[in-house]
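Mevalonate kinase (Elizabethkingia argenteiflava), 308 aa
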Amino acid sequence: MTNPLFYAKILLFGEYGIIENSQGLTLPYSFYKGCLQFSQLQTDFEKSSNQSLKKYAEYLANIKIPQEFKIDIERFIEDIDKGMFFDSNIPQGYGIGSSGALVAAIFEKYSLIKRKPESISKDELKALKKVFGLLESYFHGTSSGVDPLICYMNLPILIENKESVNKVALPENEMGRGAIFLIDSGKIGETGPMVQIFFEKLKNEGFRKTLKDEFIRYNNACIDAFLKKDMNPFFRDLKKLSYWVYEHFNPMIPESLFKAWKRGLDTNAYYLKLCGSGGGGYILGFAQDYDKAEKMLEGFQKEVIYRF
């Protein structure tokens, strides 16, 4: 395939916690995708994307990439001059990996050593994550490398801790009554300011303690129960996680969803959580009876991403 597609990603669990060594669970989302294309650059979108690639190429030319992950910068720049752009429908500022897909596409096309994602070992995953963090830092200031890694691998990934990641199998997607879904907050989120708020909070010893003793514990328990498809403990811990975020991550919850978030907790019809850094973009919803949750969330734009 000359122009492979790179899908968006969804971080089901681990937002903010992975900064403090919690587990994370992330999966590709094929509804949104992007690929590198050539054109005459006649639309504003194509022109803007091409110019962005030029600036990114300058960044790549000035950073030190480990030898085994070297990128053919000269060929990349030649292709940009020939009219290459990133053709993508992944919304920016929505927490689903628009820059991750771009980095993965460039790495796949221009890395000097070609790899087959399905045969990459756990140790190679760790090294790749580090390199992707360097490559994506251009867009966010800092990057864990997880987003481009997911987009590149196109497989669900379990983040075991800050250093270690592994491929993982999700429970089979069944057409049951339950669902995981995205809700559009109607507002673009900015990662930088949200992360800054989090680091300010981390200066408080009481916050650090509750983050470790409660948030990370609930987060890891949700991942464990979900992968085992043990839905009763899953929803029990998910409610605790949702309530903790409501109490402690107030600025990260988009204003348009604040009442709906509380209503879910009060009725147990659904639970909401952040999808990425929050502040806008998408929010994740979980319901054991999606039809009931959908009626209660009437007026919001929703997309189901997983059924159980």
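The chain has two domains: 6-167, 179-307. The beta strands are 6-13, 24-38, 84-88, 157-159, 165-167, 179-184, 271-274, 282-287, 302-307. ok done for today
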